[in-house]
Amino acid sequence: MLVRLQFQNVLAANVGAHGIPLEELVAAREEHASILEDVHLERRAGKHAFLDLPYQAEGAKEWAQFGSGVGRRYKNIVVIGMGGSSLGFAAIHRACSHPFANLKSRRAGSPRVFVLDNIDPDTVSALLEVAKPRDTFFNVISKSGSTPETAANFFVILEKLRKARPDTWREHLAITTDPDKGPLRSFASREGIASFPVPPGVSGRFSALSAVGMLPAAAAGIPIDEVLEGAREMDVASLQSGFDTNIPFQIALIHTLLARRHKSIAVMMPYSDGLSGFSLWFRQLWAESLGKRLDLSRKEVHAGQTPVVAAGAADQHSQIQLYVEGPNDKVIGFLALEKHRKRVRIPSDDASGELGYLGGTGLDRVLRAEREGTQVALTRANRPNYTITIPTTSPKTIGALLYLFEAAVVYAGRMLGINPYDQPGVEAGKKAAAALLGQEGTEDEKKALRAFLRPDKAHTLEW
Ligand code: PA5
């Protein structure tokens, strides 16, 4: 078993009118069955290019070779990229590495790893203090090559790198971007910097299994062939096997049917710290792919569920009260492990009296009981929830999970009748920011934005 989905707690039989009646689920399966065939045929015609990423044997060899060379030579690796250009790698790295890897003593082949995905000046300058450019390899990742946050961070770092390594600064860089166009592609070609393609037709949040996620993963010492193998196994065991065993299809169906029942929030709650990066990646995938104003016929639909990230067991003490007793507007997806990588036993010596039940048991057993207890509490309060179980956190299982949810979001997009691959809402904010910063040709827009942003004295409080 690579992945198991238990979904009885989304059914009306268990959560009453807030759940899906079994007949409705069966009918919806039939209604949407053609989606599987359509996606399959379109895939063969070259659409949904991300589905074929796990089969790039040549690429994988090249990334592994280049990455392991980098990992041996540098003390630090910094990934610079926004959204889909960094979240996939961060999820893989979190699932496959020591939780405090950067604090462990460094061996060749295990550099410290940092992800720069914001332009907070305090963070950027602090990063450059701890990861000196002279000892650091930077992987700049941007499909468009024109994302302002990525470009701004890159320019800051480039200046420091050139000063620190006037002759060899180019060796400290790899650029992952569009194979043919964009400012980063031109820069890489002009300066002779090592570069890797983001495959055409693959948008950022679907690109984790390309050079975008695989190159830095290889540099961080992660066996990327196993990540890709996990994705391939998910493909064969699930996507290609038909209807009943197609976990991505079932996930898409559950979310779509529950959204119709006003479950407008999708909570992802792993009971494994190693999957915390995965839930952040999921949040972006679900939000940016499904949150759409228009459907494919240009009708206003305002589709999408708001994805929320929670961590078991920590957030039982912060959010579960709301989930059990607040508005019944959520579907909660639990992620569970069959087995944690380490076993930690709670000694019996001091666990007595009221806490005696803890003595002699494992932390993993307590974590499991906490999850099961939370599932029971939610289900008894008629809150729909499902559980995905994987054997453990490993390169293979994270590869399978990423692939599973990428496919699920495409099926869900079909069921909602929207395009999961674009992000017009993000573009609107990007354009406005560029105009405010004085991008050429946007002078009128800048004036209008300034007027719009002028503070209204009557509604401003200062203390
Ligand atoms: O998923 C997406 O398409 C986005 O999140 C992009 O990855 C993000 O906006 C960064 O874009 P780019 O890779 O062009 O820098």
Give me a quick take on this structure.
With 463 residues, the protein is of the alpha/beta class. Helices cover 46% and strands 13% of the residues. Bound molecules: 5-phosphoarabinonic acid.
Short key terms for the protein model shown above:
alpha/beta, Rossmann fold, 2 domains, five-stranded mixed β-sheet, five-stranded parallel β-sheet, 16 helices, 12 strands, globular, binds 5-phosphoarabinonic acid
Structure notes:
The chain is of the alpha/beta class. It has 16 helices and 12 strands. Strands 1-12-11-7-10 form a 5-stranded mixed beta sheet, with helices on both faces. It has a 5-stranded parallel beta sheet with strand order 3-2-4-5-6, with helices on both faces. The structure holds 5-phosphoarabinonic acid. The site of 5-phosphoarabinonic acid has 15 residues, from loops.
Please describe the topology of this protein.
Layout: E1 4-6, H1 12-15, H2 22-44, H3 57-73, E2 76-80, H4 87-96, E3 112-116, H5 121-130, E4 136-142, H6 148-164, E5 173-177, H7 183-191, E6 194-197, H8 211-219, H9 224-237, H10 247-260, E7 265-270, H11 276-290, E8 292-294, E9 300-303, E10 306-309, H12 320-325, E11 330-337, H13 363-380, E12 385-390, H14 395-416, H15 424-436, H16 443-453
Parallel strand pairs: 2-3, 2-4, 4-5, 5-6, 7-10, 7-11, 11-12
Antiparallel strand pairs: 1-12, 8-9
Helix pairs in contact: 2-10, 3-8, 4-8, 4-11, 4-14, 9-14, 10-14, 11-14
This protein binds 5-phosphoarabinonic acid.
5-phosphoarabinonic acid (PA5) is lined by residues 82-85, 142-144, 147, 150, 203-205, 288, 423, 426.
